Records
---
Amino acid sequence: MHVIASFEHSIYLELAITAVEEAGILKENIYAVPLQERPGKPGMFDSIHGSDGISLFDAGAALATAFTVIGSTYGFVLKGGAILWGLIGAAAGFTIGVIIDILHKKKKGVKHPAPGKKTEVVVLVNCTKEEAKYIQTMFWEHMALGVAVCE
């Protein structure tokens, strides 16, 4: 049997491995492998195939809405009309919002993955069927992110 668990790189990982060793599992049957971080920086913009959870669209959409309302309102008295000034307001608001988001993200130094999050460690334990249930329970008690039991 194999028990596989994923942990954050923390003291809980050490406590879980120690608990498994105290349960009688030999060190030769416990494998802990840290995952490597992403090499290089991901792109600034998301693709259609994936997103990193950081959006540059939010402030742009909010400011585009606000500037559209303002442009349309004043467009009734300005030359060109409400529709033209609403569209100009939308374009200007969106552009300003995206620029604000880009500057804010650069100033904050947003890193990938989320700030403070380190890579995970995968732990694999070779054991008997009787020991697997106990090891699985130990991993859950020590804050495992996920646990799987394989035959």
Note: The beta strands are 2-8, 30-34, 120-126, 146-150.
---
Amino acid sequence: MLEILYQDEYIIAINKPSGLLVHKSFYARDAKVFAIQELRNQIGGQHVYPIHRLDRKTSGVLLFALDSAVLKIMNDRFATREVEKKYLAILRGWSPEELTIDYDLTNDDGIIQNAITYFHRLQSTEIELEFNNQPTSRYCLVEAIPETGRMHQLRKHFKHIFHPILGSRPHGCNKQNKLWLENFDLRGMMLHAHQLIFNHPITNEQLILNAKINEEFSRVGTILNLDLNKYE
């Protein structure tokens, strides 16, 4: 059963599990289960329209419209950046305390698109894990707010500043991912859409939807001695 965070006659939001595709994708033809299908079945067969996307490995708040008119309203609000998306990510190394990454990305059609991400560091940690001939490894927890919504934007932006998201493939650090797979059996990606802030498409009331982190994110936080209590 999907965790429903909010539901009324116009919209519905879930806490999407990591590993679940939103819909069928050319890039993941092995998948048999999709969020659209599962949610529709769970609410009695009513059609649902995804308003935005989350990567397969990204967990967190995912919003759907329950009719096409509401879908158009919310698509317009996403396009005009009236919706604020906040993510939690665990990065390799100690990132700057805060930074706006303004770095263009190229999509699958070869088109260059402007992409902007603001983030600030929440916590820093260092553990006894040998890497690159060093006895310890450093990591940090950040909150990221993408101003644009390009494919794999956060993964690509954090790799660009040399602080890749732990567990990200292919836009990560292969050596770190292998280290964590061998030592901690980490197979997921440490990226979670923890909050979505927007005005309701019909009532215009402000909604703040929060999604708890999953067990894998919490387990990694424990290994790294991060305080994740407020997100659990």
Note: The longest helix spans residues 68-79.
---
Amino acid sequence: MQAAFLVATEGTEQGELTRPWQAVTDAGGGPTLVSTRAGKVQAFHHLDKADTFPVDLTVDEVTAADFDGLVLPGGVAGPDALRLDERAVAFVKSFFDAGKPVAAICHAPWTLIEAEVVRGRTLTSWPSLRTDLRNAGATWVDEQVQICTGGPNTLITSRKPADLEAFCAAFVSEFSH
């Protein structure tokens, strides 16, 4: 199982990166950290700086064909920055076009909205995205994890760090198929 983890250069919620990363590793998979620039990314614990992580590849160096699935960690600032980067948005959309699974937690669905891939899909997220997702044509539910197969791919979403155990179990199972 090869999983791409797409994050902005800063603003990703550290636990929403490290716990899913560990879940992929524990399942015998290979996680790859992808970002918009080479170097390191700055993770956060909510609004406070946390650790930095080395970028493996940039969005210009990868395609959906390189991976079995895509993980979009949350945090407020990271997904907001990603949705403004056309290359990152195109990379996300390419997984939907290829029919490959995507997993997004917390604020990460902002990038999905920008990629125009949520219309007709059922998702969960951090509650403040509810109206954004509905306005983009999605059905929003308040569930620990939501697995939507009503589209070109499987879309796994969760609300917050407290949902990480269920989120990781769901996407690892889907990515392993």
Note: The longest strand covers residues 48-54.
---
Amino acid sequence: MSVVTLKINGVDLAIEEGTTILDASKEAGIRIPTLCHLNGVTDVGACRLCLVEIAGVNKMLPSCVTQVAEGMDITTDSDRLQEYRRMIVEMLFSEGNHVCAVCVANENCELQDLAIEVGMDHSRFPYRFPDREIDISHKQFGIDHNRCILCTRCVRVCDEIEGAHVWDVAYRGVAAKVVTGLNQPWGSVDACTSCGKCVEACPTGSIFRKGSTVAEMTRDRSKLEFIVNARENKQWTR
């Protein structure tokens, strides 16, 4: 096992080679905000909230997909980073239709929590008010595309943990959205096992259980972590 030495926020650390900056920061007890990151699935750097500054590098890099290197001098919290993170959260709110007061995930939403953390009380960007559909064709679950932030957690969980490959991302730019099957109604996709892992993975109220009302949506991330850890330790296979 090779070890590299580096600094994070001025603190000297020795970290195993191949570790991401995000995981190294966690080991050091340093919090970096994330939305698309989920323990147990591959990181894709979609939300850009985990950006950090590295001395000698002229651009900010996503910590979830950037590995540590010998001699790195990393800053995870600065005025510049705080401004960028707030801007990202503002853009997420203005890009979709997020009305917390009538959302099933109100007070249990990672996007809402981050808005509070970065001090967002309004968005400087004009709201797009996109016309997006709600799919409740599945017998147990539904998806409200108005609340989707394209973190792709549902796609990766269904692919890498459940192995059903139900979810994917279709279209490009402002038209991009997550889809089930070949852009079919969720209820008509035979590959869906109704496991609910996508519901557990969603950071907002986009994917929900039918019958949930305002602020009732709760999740248990430990279910996903249990499955991943059990497979890695060969305690459970399917």
Note: The first strand starts at residue 3 and ends at 8.
